[in-house]
Predict the structure.
Amino acid sequence: MKGMIIVNVDVCNACKSCEIACAVEHSASKDLYEAIHEDPKPRARVSVQQGVSFSVPLQCRQCANAPCIALCPTGGLHRADPDSPVLLDEEKCIGCDWCVLACPFGVIQLDEERKVAFKCDQCFERVQRGQLPACVSACPTGALMFKILEEVSKERRNAYLVEIAECLTGGGV
Amino acid sequence: MTEMASEKTDAVTVTVKKPVLQVSCLVCGTPFATEKQVRRVHEKLHFSQQLAATCPDCRGAKFRGAMEKVLSSQK
């Protein structure tokens, strides 16, 4: 089942809790107070971007035909199974920058200190344990949601049906 | 060309630093990749010339702008 991180931009207030939670989740200690003092500093895989009329947390879109995987020369970027997010094996990463150049959304970054790329893995291990990704758990307004692809399609269909029903009944269902 | 060598137990690491010309981003003008890299991204991934020659930061901004356009048209 392919999971997706969905953003409701109407309720995002750019508090950056997702960025902090992501960095902590990818730190060695997984504890906020200890992570602050870690060296190298843990990095967030999500970044809150400020638009003209809204803010939106941007992270890897987990493309079906991921161009980053296609250009990775070492096989460091891979999928565990066809439905899994794009994962990065840091042991194999040589920091060549190809994935950064291949990403059409500009969401893969290179850790200049450690010379390895870093990207959102949708907290693969947490999700395997039945938990939500860290950014989704930390979002105080519910702007970030983790849903299964089929669930999203079903919700959209239902919303569309309600819309049609409202049109047919002249506003009240 | 500068060469630095460091010895760690039985392994020797040599770092070679060579200046290379970089292509400037079409949007912000910041040098971000070599011409060869931009060409490879264009040819192998079939990205448009424009997208291939746009730096990762500007691609993110472009994506955000596109989202904004779609969302404002829905309201």
